[in-house]
Amino acid sequence: MSIPEEFQQSVREIVAEVVGVELEEVEHHSNFFDDLGGESIDVLDLDFHLEKRLGAHTNFHKMFSPDRWELDESGRPTPDSIRRLREDFPHVALPVDVDSANMKDNFTVTFIVETAHRAATNAAHRKTA
Which of these CATH numbers, 1.10.1200.10, 1.10.287.380, 3.30.450.40, 3.40.50.300, describes 5-128? Predict the structure, then answer.
């Protein structure tokens, strides 16, 4: 399913506003943290604006919440942690080797757009059901 350009543009505008950069800096491959200077607290603001403006209940903040991750003795997320993440994010294809570091590495504008679109679409379907 292709994502309407208007939706993509709206998400880019929200991201730019949240992290305080010019819209031109927000490219599809830009990483929210590394390239755009976003911080964990900005993720809460991102969640709020995506839901308010686009109806996309993303809960991104739960991805980066320290209490979300129970680690095993090797430092990897426990199966229970991964299960909770999958329950909280049914609209996101989490990597098989998911861990908190690669979640931040993969938190690109494209990932945000795709996840927000799935969340908004799911919300619209629930309203009509």
Answer: 1.10.1200.10
